[in-house]
Amino acid sequence: MDIDGAIGRAAPESGGNSPRHRIDAAHEVRFPTREEYIDVVAGLRDGGFEMCADLCAVDYLTHPGRTLPDGVRAERFEVVVNLLSLSQVRRIRIRVQVPAADAVVATLFNLYPGTEAMEREAYDLLGIVFTGHPDMTRILLPEDWEGHPLRKDYGVGRVPVQFKGAPGPR
Amino acid sequence: MSDATASERPEDVPHTDTVLPAPVSGTGYDEATDTGTGRGLIIETSEGAQELFSRKETEPDELRREAGAVLRLPEGVTINADDIDIEQSDDETMIINMGPQHPSTHGVLRLMIELDGETVLRTKPVIGYLHTGMEKTAEELTYVQGSTNVTRMDYLSPLHNELVLSLAVEALLGIDMPARSDWIRMLMVELNRVSSHLMWMATNGMDHASTSMMIYGFREREMVLAFFEKTTGLRMNHNFIRPGGTAADLPDGWEDDVTVICDTVLPRLDEYDELLTGQPLFRQRSEGVGNLSAEEALALSLTGPLLRSTGVPWDLRRAMPYLRYDEVEFDVIVGTFGDNFDRYSIRLNEIRESIRIIRQVIEKMPAGDYRVQDKKVTPPPRGRIDESMEALIHHFKVFTEGFKVPEGEVYVATESPRGELGCYLVSDGSPKPFRMHIRGPSFVNLQALPLMMRGGLLADAVVACSSVDPVMGEVDR
């Protein structure tokens, strides 16, 4: 693995006082369809992306008009995969549209076993089912929990606050 | 929990989810409850399908893929096929529970371990006992309030959590940060790395039955926490690094305080060397235990000391520099064998490297603002509020409504003491994050546990768990 190039890259310079925008967060983003998803990720893995750094899902129920490139039809859910190439020192993000009526995506487990826990988390909190996953159970919530909390139509629990007339703690 | 809670729950807990097409094989309830003794307790503590099942309830495919653990490496990546004893019967093995309140699980981690005698065959971590829905909470809080929330995730390195959120918000805002705020952040974050690794040295020492190491580790960590208290007002959960800079400037005389910390901790690391590194008992218990290979580490998305112990020189501070890490000199510590001893040495030497960075920060700290002078992001200084109506309005708006962040999404990653700490942030243009996902390194690294424990002794399982350095607050979020 050639990551020596990355290691020798940092060139120390003077501790300047100039402001700058240091975080380079402008990563390449791709929008494959659900059918293309596995092939695209497999191609990227063969192209040097050794690690799946992160996998999560987003529920866009209350924000339908988001900006997407031409030809990509916005659906309610999105599965977001962050791949990392250690040899090329770059990241790429993959955003897959997943319709609400059929919230099912193929698993990445066979390409990146490290997505096992991440996909379980996405299933647990957003209810997206990853077909082919070896253990599609909840991971953070109890097994008998109802609903998927990170969905936008899942209510937030609230405790009413009483300022006056409430009985004291004892 | 009382009996009342148990009786409320149905005996056979159904799968309440309708989306899941195929039911997961066997819930393990029937057999467990048939024994008659401790019936309520078994139901109460059961995690249902999330648990580790006995061999007769597990498919051969699954056993083969598991390579003796829940690791589930796919075909081709697995170890030698002869090594996998799927023929073994349930009579010869037993599944025991470690945790969730075992002292060496470093929090509320439950490990279900299948044992053959004293040898670990399969392991499954059952997590979620500390889940408080922090990602959901984040959607209800403004960006100003956000760092109070994330700082409670990885409670041993709270400043790293605040940093990654702040960097993500600033990336969406597209604001240029003043130099001093970057350097203050670097100072605090590196001190936090020292305190976090010292804490790990302490608990790891305890797992090796070295109580003196535990006392020493906590003693040194206390110095760093005292400086944090002086600077931020709190020992933990600081809410110091905020979107737009830091909450305050460093206190007067901070250089002296930090120099004292560096000058004290550094020679004490040599004492640790004497106490542990060169000690034959410690080496025998840690060398060649909990081995990982570079391929396995990459496949399992492991980062931080776990990845570096396998010989991969990957440190985000060096590879993808953020803040001003490209202006300081430090070495990336790399191991060779991927065993517990390598991970110990990496963390020990990373304290030295952090101290090296801190000394450079003291030298190079520029003058200037500690927060960005952008009226929309930063509240006006306290003095202005008394004399300017506009300043008062600004102050009020920033703290009640918060500031609006342009629509977009961003993924920002930093190197926390445990590995890649990432933040995926989606904004819909409102003052609250539409979605905030934290990629917790402990959460991902925990997947290595079954692999590291496989084939080892139960006593080594305790050490392997310690070697992963999971912080359950971050795992469960």
Tell me the β content of chain A: 15-25%
Largest sheet of chain B: 3 strands, antiparallel
Distance between the termini of chain B: 22 Å
End-to-end C-alpha gap of chain A: 65 Å
- The helix-and-strand class of chain B reads mainly alpha
Instruction: Report the C-alpha radius of gyration of chain B, rounded.
Output: 24 Å
- Which stretches of chain B are poorly predicted, pLDDT < 50 over at least 5 residues? 1-35, 68-72, 74-81
Mean pLDDT of chain B: 81
Strand content of chain B: 5-15%
| H and E order of chain B | HHHHEEEHHHHHEEHHHHHHHHEEEHHHH
Largest binding interface between chains: A-B, 73 and 94 residues
CATH superfamily membership of the largest domain in chain B:
Cytochrome-c3 Hydrogenase, chain B
Query: What is the correct CATH architecture of the largest domain in chain B?
Result: Orthogonal Bundle
Question: Domains counted in the coordinates of chain B: how many?
Answer: 2
> Main sheet of chain A: which strands, in order across?
1-4-3-2
Tally the beta strands of chain A.
6
Shape of chain A: elongated
Give keywords:
heterodimer; A: 170 residues; alpha/beta; two-stranded parallel ribbon; 6 strands; disordered N terminus; B: 477 residues; mainly alpha; Cytochrome-c3 Hydrogenase, chain B; 2 domains; three-stranded antiparallel sheet; 8 strands; 47% helix; 10% strand
